[in-house]
Amino acid sequence: MSGNGNEEDVSHPSPISPLREPTPLNRSALSAPWRHGAEGLDFFLSCQPIFARNREVAAVELHLEYHQGRRHGSLSDLEAALSLVLASYRHVPRGGRIRSVPAVIRVPPQLLVLPELPTLPRAQYIIEVSVNGAIDDDLVERLRRFAGMGYCFALADYSLADHRLRSLLGIAQIIRLDVASLTEDELHATVTALRPYRLDLLASGIADYEIFQRCRDAGCHYFQGNFLATPTPVQGKKISNSKQLLLQLLAELQNPNVTTTRLEQIAIRDADFTYRILKIVNAAALGVGRAVDSISHAFALLGTEEIRRWVNLLLIDRAGDKPEQLTRNMLIRGRMCELLAQLAGRPSPTDYFITGLLSQLDVLMDMAMVDLMSQVPLQRTIKDALLHRIGPLGEILQDTERYEQARFSELRCLSNLSLYEIAYRHSTTWANHVQLCLNA
User: Fold this and answer.
1) pLDDT tens digits, one per residue of 321-340
2) CA separation (Å) from 243 to 80, 165, 376, 391?
3) Do 140 and 41 share a structural domain?
4) Which residues pair with 350 in a beta bridge?
5) 249: phi then psi, degrees, rounded to nearest 5
6) Are 132 and 246 members of one domain?
7) For residue 31, what pLDDT band results from cuts at 50, 70 and 90?
8) 152-156 and 125-130 strand pairing
9) Where among 183, 205, 229 does a domain terminate?
10) pLDDT value at residue 281
11) Where residue 380 sits, what CATH number does that domain have?
């Protein structure tokens, strides 16, 4: 993360270097078993993106909370969580490749008084310090010493009116501003006062795109909040012609007696769709032994359930100027809904996948969800879940959204709490692989 004002440079001080390209997507990446070798943890862990000025992901923020009955953590817990972040959560697709971004972790005050901090690569994570409490000379000196050792610090709960915080401005590299608690004039005054310190300013609590633009214009460098998840419906907008074929395929797939011949008759009307399905099947390492060169062969190999899955995946892909993170989040939601449904013993897990996948379709297409549901051929139960968050599908979708938003105390569907993080971790990795396949 960097405060140099360059929209393209989001890597400083942690270089965003390409990772090794993942192995080809295969059937096991799209279905159970998925828990083999996964270790259950005593805490919830989710990561929320931090965006640069160009709306690409510049970093991820770690949210860690212990399960019920555990009130405190240890240094080993923190190291375990950070290891997971470095291994699984800080890898994001960008431009057809997987890249790594820094991870932000808020360290509890009791850990700051320890003689050492976690022994993980210091360039790959940023330690956030809350100053909502007593600031003494000992704390300032410890932070200064750690900064001299190469640790990067972000300062949270900053207030322009609190003069005690000035002693920390020469130590921190990033200042978090809660823009939900600032008026527009207060935001500009704070940015102006901090400008001489040449710090990176992270605006958090951004509720919509208008506030994002206001913070960007004010001079903030990084942004966090629900602004990318808030739809901005365009009156009278219709689903584009490129998506109409997918909707027709979805309608046919509602028929349990549909044949691959009928699906092929629809699919061959669109050369781009045929090309992409063939690319996906040939990249999926299905063990055919030779290239799949016809849509009928591809459909026969996939089967109707997998065709239904991929048609929905292609429905959310390549939507205007939307950032890649929105598609990635929809993929994570879809897969996690499916896994939670499997763990809860629910029938038809593919319906849960589709529900999670399409839960932000209104944001992706800039159309009201009620208008979309009048044009998209889906089962009534899926539409009820998307429109009203009701029924078994809506229940699982709500649990997935709660985990995503770090509202861990509100989780309801599983009694074994450690399974939530395992499902989320798998869904994150799965989404990265699928997005690479979609971009192939």
Assistant:
1) 788 999 999 999 999 999 99
2) 43, 53, 10, 28
3) yes
4) none
5) -65, -40
6) no
7) very low
8) parallel
9) 229
10) 81
11) 1.10.3210.10
Number of domains observed in the structure of the chain: 2
- Asked whether residue 234 is domain-assigned, the answer is no
CA distance 319 to 269: 20
Question: Which CATH number belongs to the domain containing residue 188 in this structure?
Answer: 3.20.20.450
Token pair belonging to 66: 């212990």
- Is the pLDDT reported for residue 217 higher than 70? yes
Domain span at 362: 241-438
Sorted by sequence, the CB contacts under 8 Å of residue 68 that are 6+ apart come out as: 409, 417
- Note the pTM of the prediction, 2 decimals: 0.86
The answer to whether 206 and 225 have CB atoms below 8 angstroms apart is yes
**If we measure between CA atoms, which residue out of 283, 282, 322, 281 comes closest to residue 302?**
281
Q: Do residues 48 and 204 touch, judged by C-beta distance below 8 A?
A: no
Distance CA 275, CA 49 (A): 32
- Out of 197, 229, 261, pick the residue that ends a domain: 229
- What's the pLDDT tens digit per position in 258-286? 998 999 999 998 888 888 888 878 876 55
Residue of 66 and 103 predicted with greater confidence: 103
Residues 173 and 220 in one domain: yes
Q: Extract the tokens encoding 21.
A: 């390209």
Q: What is the mean pLDDT of residues 225-243?
A: 82
SS3 content of the chain, % helix, strand, coil (to 5): 50, 15, 40
Q: What does the mean pLDDT of the chain come to?
A: 82
